[in-house]
Amino acid sequence: MAKVYISDVIDAPLDKVWNFARDFNGHGDWHPIIEKSEIEGGKPSDQVGCVRAFSTSDGGFLRERLIAFSDKDHFFTYEILESPMPIENYVASFRCTQITEGDRTFVEWWAEFDVAPEDEAEIRQRVGRNTFAAGIRAIAERLD
Which PANTHER family match (predicted)? Predict the structure, then answer.
């Protein structure tokens, strides 16, 4: 099983970061590689079980289901249902934690998934750098 873990600090208070990032469908508005995203069936984007379907700037199409969500603990977890990437059993989590000194927020985004050894390096780059790291930086830029 492959693992990817990215963390960073956003120079904004926890409530501000979480209120912005908690929208499971919001990535279509701020993530640089997401072209269009919608929640299937008109469900709320914080309802466990909702599915977001989205397209990426490189022509990909993905569907992901929200499998855990907590405003109290500032995290959500989701799984990929459909993806052009050669992966299986993909589960990812996004979490925000208050940094007590300086009123900043520690943001973590990680995933575990099965991938063939010959594809692992490329997929780890796509998920880690191109998706998670780029997404955290995009949130930070939007909140400046």
Answer: BLL4707 PROTEIN (PTHR39332), SRPBCC FAMILY PROTEIN (PTHR39332:SF7)
89 three-class SS:
strand
HSE-CB at 97 with a 13 A cutoff on CA atoms is: 8
pLDDT in tens, 29-76: 999 999 999 999 999 999 999 999 999 999 999 999 999 999 999 999
CB 98 within 8 A of CB 120: no
Which helix (H) or strand (E) element contains residue 134? helix 134-143
pTM assigned to the model: 0.95
Contact indicator for 83, 60 with CB cutoff of 8 Å? yes
| 107, 7 contact by CB (below 8 A) | yes
CB 77 within 8 Å of CB 100: no
